[in-house]
């Protein structure tokens, strides 16, 4: 059967070492996924050559666009040797068939060396660095298995990226500790030279599983009484964090510093795709592949209930375009409670990430986002600024003109 092309590019993030990592961050949602693969023995969590080749061949052939983006994630993907990624590049060239291939990799930065950075620079890889702000905030949760802090090693890694001219960006987890210090976190990112910043609010619930996992699956209802993990950011904290950050950015850094949330918000104001899945109307086009070829519906849905199949006996296209994955993607819209459907900010929010939609509305409906009140406050706060920037773009003027609307005394 011939399948129709996807409305948006098919995307599968690869986990070459599964959940294996040299750190043991308290809030990590992926470390425990190793418990799903304890029966594999000595080489569990390591992607073998057969799986690597099968993935690269299928992934390239499944694309409907001339550009193909490979994303290597973890765990900590640098726990595979450089030779693994050199092999990946060779396979990409072998199966490219005229397509343009790009690669990005998300790392905690502690294992970076000159050799790694030369490789990234020579092959034009984009590197994402996970760092939660200044040392006090970063080391609160991002530590080794022995409890040692990781900040200094991460900063050495960033220095090596800069030394070799590697393109990189920063990803910060917003948690219960650093959320109260938005400007300190933001100014730190500017000081270390990053221009592209992604913030991820951490929201997890605790529910024990028989195999040792302790995080509640997204579909776990509030009636099951899972407890909120202590490191989770509260809606009040997150609202304060992103609104304070926005006020600083909109006065001083539009067009110079690119914050993913703010860029995505402006995209929604313009009526175009936001570039981030949690603000899109539906989801399901972005999956994740474990080290052994297992495909799950989403990186935050790596639970047995969301296993779509395995690339060694199922095709990536077949799994991603299956009725099961279509239903998964449509559920984001179809399960919206009335409170969301009647919300003036639905066009921008679209209910947020399904992973966090475990609250109950005042009317007793399920699937309200835990961070709903934070997003409402944020959209109300940024609306006049977004209206101005939208108007500038519609008249082919730079949105950075908004900074001229503030008194000069506000430009420090």
Overall pLDDT level: 93
Helix share of residues?
Answer: 25-40%
Structural class: alpha/beta
Q: Using only CA atoms, what is the Rg?
A: 21 Å
Summarize the helix and strand pattern as letters. Answer: EHEHEHEHHEHEEEHEHEEEHHHHH
How many individual helices? 13
Number of strands: 12
How would you sum up this structure, described in words?
The chain has helices at residues 49-61, 82-95, 114-122, 135-141, 151-163, 182-191, 235-252, 260-269, 316-320, 323-334, 338-341, 346-349, 372-394; strands at residues 11-14, 67-72, 100-107, 126-130, 168-174, 196-201, 205-206, 227-228, 258-259, 286-289, 294-296, 307-310. The longest helix has 23 residues, at 372-394. With 412 residues, it is α/β, with parallel strands linked by helices. The chain is globular, with a radius of gyration of 21 Å. The protein starts with 10 loop residues before the first strand and ends in an 18-residue tail after the last helix. It contains 13 helices and twelve strands.
Topology, element by element:
Blueprint: E1 11-14, H1 49-61, E2 67-72, H2 82-95, E3 100-107, H3 114-122, E4 126-130, H4 135-141, H5 151-163, E5 168-174, H6 182-191, E6 196-201, E7 205-206, E8 227-228, H7 235-252, E9 258-259, H8 260-269, E10 286-289, E11 294-296, E12 307-310, H9 316-320, H10 323-334, H11 338-341, H12 346-349, H13 372-394
Parallel strand pairs: 1-10, 2-3, 3-4, 4-5, 5-6, 6-9
Antiparallel strand pairs: 7-8, 10-11, 11-12
